[in-house]
Amino acid sequence: MKKICYFLVVLMVFFAGIANGYAEVIGNADTEVKNIAAPLLDSVILGLEKNSYSAYTQNFAQNKISKQRFSEINKKIASWLGSYLNSEYLGFLNKGGNTLVFWKGTFEKTQDEILIKMKITKINDKNLIIGLEFE
Hints:
The protein is α+β, with helices and mostly antiparallel strands and 135 residues long.
């Protein structure tokens, strides 16, 4: 019996030190959340496509990824997924003072649909990414 193994690269970025008391959700309606989250996703994708650490991290609450680690992650994602083609907004959940936003991503090197999960919070009136996962 043949087994087919799929190698799943999961990019998780979690940031410590953000208390829920200081964080708040970014919205309560699909249109509102999508309009806030789409530019944040665009900057992440641009950073990956251009191998630009500054573009990738510009909307993160804290830069917990070094430039070297970013480069390693970017190489893994590029070899696994290839170029970004498009994404479709799926929806959001507000949980614990944060907003989880879900996208279906399409990439060049895979027929699979990739779930992109972005955790966003509002701190001092600024919408910031505190978690990101591709699976």
